[in-house]
Amino acid sequence: MPKSHTPSSTSTPATRRIWRKPLRSAGGLAVLLAAAMALPASPAWAVDPDAGPSNLVPGRGTATPVLVEGLREPVDAKAAPADAARRHLAAHKSRYKIPRAGSDLTPLATTTTGRTGETVRLQQRYRGVDVLGGQYVVRMQKRDGKRVVTGTSGHYFTALRTDVTPQIGEDLAVRRAVAATARRLNGVLDKSRAPRAEDDAATTGLTGEAKGLVVLPKGAGVLAYRVTVRGTAPGTGAPVVEEVYVDARSGYPVLQYSALKTVAAPAARTVGETAEGPTADAPPPVPAGLVPETGSGTRLSGAATALDVAYDPSTATYLLADAGRMRATTKNLLATWDARGTSVSEASGRWPTGIKMFSSPTTAFGAVATDSGAVDAHWNAGRVYDYFKNSHGRDSLDGAGMTVNSLVGVTYYGLPYVNAFWDGTKMVYGSGDDEFKPLSADTDVVGHEMTHGVVEHSANLVYAGQSGALNEAIADYFGNAIDVTASGTPMGDPAAGLIGEDLCRTKAAADCALRNLNDGATTSKSFLGVSFATDNGGVHLNSTIFSGALWDMREDLGGQLADRIVYKALTEYMTPIDGFTEARNAVLAAARALGVTAAQQNTVKRSFNAHGIVPGWEQALGVDSDTLFGGLNTTDSGVGAGGGWWTASKSNEDGSEPYSVYAGRLDGTGGAKVISPNDGRYHTGPATDGRTVVWTAYGPTSVDILSRPVAGGPIKTLYSSVTGVSGLRVEKNTVVFEEYDFFGGRHVGYQRPTDKAPVFTDGRKWNVLTALPSISGNRIAYAKLYPQGGTYRLGVEVVDLTTGKAVLAENLEEPQGLGQTGINGEKVFWLSDTDDGDAGQLTIMSAALDGTHAAAVSSEHKPGALIATDLTVSQEALTVVGLTPDTRYRNESLPKLWQLTTDGSRRERVSCNRGEQSYPAAGAGRQVVWLDATTGSTDLVVRDRPAGTC
Prior knowledge:
Layout lengths: L29 H8 L17 E3 L9 E3 L3 E2 L6 H11 L1 H4 L4 H4 E9 L3 E10 L2 E15 L2 E9 L15 H16 L3 E2 L15 E11 L5 E11 L6 E9 L5 E6 L1 E2 L11 E2 L16 E8 L5 E9 L4 E3 L1 E2 L11 E5 L5 H4 L8 E2 L1 E2 L6 H5 L2 H19 L11 E7 L9 E3 L3 E5 L12 H14 L8 H23 L10 E2 L9 H4 L2 E2 L6 H4 L8 H4 L4 H15 L1 H14 L7 H14 L4 H13 L15 E4 L9 E4 L2 E6 L9 E6 L7 E2 L7 E7 L3 E7 L4 E7 L6 E6 L2 E8 L2 E7 L5 E6 L7 E2 L8 E8 L2 E10 L2 E10 L5 E3 L8 E7 L3 E7 L9 E6 L6 E4 L8 E7 L3 E7 L12 E6 L5 E3 L7 E6 L5 E5 L6 E5 L7
Parallel strand pairs: 19-22, 22-24
Antiparallel strand pairs: 1-2, 2-7, 3-7, 4-5, 5-6, 6-7, 8-44, 9-10, 10-11, 11-12, 13-14, 15-16, 16-17, 17-21, 18-19, 19-20, 23-24, 25-26, 27-54, 28-29, 29-30, 30-31, 32-33, 33-34, 34-35, 36-37, 37-38, 38-39, 40-41, 41-42, 42-43, 44-45, 45-46, 46-47, 48-49, 49-50, 50-51, 52-53, 53-54
Helix pairs in contact: 1-8, 8-9, 9-10, 10-14, 10-15, 14-15, 14-17, 15-16, 16-17
């Protein structure tokens, strides 16, 4: 089965992943429960309506504070909690700047803490439309017929001014979202996308579902449709779930990230999870009349253990179904299901048909339940449930006694699946392989997965960027806390901070562990700036910075107190789009609310300080490149260079405006000039040859290719597409591009100054796909998938636009996939994949312009081969975006720029910047301009020569 090598794809085989998510103490002791529920010794009942807050933290980009502490303000004790909370906000309009608390804030949930605590979560609505991440929390205490507000926190955006009337229809938003996802996943032209019949043409394997309008809280606000795109990735068939936010005026996908909580790590095994979301099918009905019993089984470690099982009188068998823990409340189960032979695509966001709970004719569950990981999954699920119930008074993952379903033995299309996930309703554990046991075999993995359910039903931290890293960090923290407590491992043990170390079959724990919370990661030395296309903005890459701070705090304060602080911060203070700084404030506030001493507060502060989580930490990240244009605030828009000029798209400072195309000189002299019109469309994907700039403009009815001279002049519309275009290149007013459609078709077109309309190299035939074009010396090159002899072949075609002659370049080996092409005055270059059994490396190929003398500039079969995803070429050098196969996901395994001589005799790193490097464009000689995410922003940077070794 061919594979995709696009780094933003979610399609990397599970056997080559590193667990980025589960992102990145059992028992029923009455004394522990009492301690968790006890009220702190606080002056909450010394009501002083005139006293202001003891601590108020202002928000960024909003007049509403993100944290208010130390209140003792009375509020209506007879009203419903949500009504009382909103009345408090309305009564203190000068503090909160919320003009219509009754109508702008709708109740989400109210939870109780102990006997008197009330936490109300409110969703911000702007003119009747939900605001993404707009959530405000009001904390209250009610006792003896009185109620006081003790504090508030969250994000309410006061700067919103946008109109909420969409200018495009829902159908167009869905089509644009599906097309954008298909384009993101289809970086490589892959044989798996070969058309099957004329009436079928190609197919994306993707569908979109509109989830309504939302306001993105950027500046004055961006009205967008939220579209969930589902399907399978080309090449691998791996499940795809993308959250795409499509601007409701222009139809441009302004925000897109994978909702699958998995991360593709080259040549590595991954444990991950899918994002929240409703299942397509419900589990079968639970048999009536189940009787709780005590059973037994053996864990994969070899330890015999008691199991909470149930007797099913209808079948006279025993089930791995714990009917006892919630018998006094919801009567729901902790159930473990046999999903052996079920593929991950069937279990992700849906209920697989035909699976049953593990059963046994006696209370003793045998080898099948052991070897599949069912015994471990069931035993561990009980330990995690007990931890949250006994330590924090939480009944199941949602706090209201929801069923806990665990599916074990899931495969990857029949192959070993080294992965695990929480999909919003259940846990799914992979089968493991020769190196890793089934993923349910480690308590901290199960604890991590189930904690994601707790996070989803409390702060619901958005799984992208810093909030996603917090999601990972908290899941890791509690998974580890439960594990070390259950095993009796002291925090001082060198293995105490390891995640997944008990999964190892042959390696030592430290060599096999998926993460280490005691890795010393800090913002200054470890934070990696990446786009949402990579690890959803670093949710796993950056998680141990925060989880490390929490782990240090636990080591110093002790597990019981630290766990209470973190749980309180999560459930009563944090909101969906909190970052590291807000989360630090939440933990500190939770500690103060629990009445910890001043010395203990200083311990908490020191833990965060030691990991660099301090106000303004984002400003301390350095680079070795020259910044040409900073803070672009764009997504899915590349860079162009040529003739001593660069061109790129940029939004405004908060990213709320439609993008404009700018151009400037590569030597940095002079200022950037605006090239595109300010007409409300999104102007993206520009290219230049130093004379002309071409780009795409996304509007409500079409996606247009526009051009304008660098020196100024009229803007011309060259072509209008109803679907979309990408890969623009220009040379002497000849433009080449790729048009893609909603069904997976890809066709390269070019337009010369004398052409009234584009010429498509493949004639737009249903059975031919062309993609990934380049241009130089009045020649164009592109990848081509075409039928021959009853099968499909792949090749790189070069067309001389002067003569119209087309030649196919020689192949050294039959490719399964082809990547980006590049061409200069002497050769054509391209990326080629011929080996499905490696970790995703590609060969960098070259040939003469007549297609002869094919050679491997860098072979995928040799040591040091790169997992290359993009290519650009000058007369002297070629530069690729490449990842190095790595068993750990870290800076070195991020997309980096590598420059090679055209004969491959020398290879160097273009830049040693920490973070993601993408969209390179070659200038003259060895100069390269690219988009760099090191600083956490997206900056256009340049280097005139490579940095060498890093």
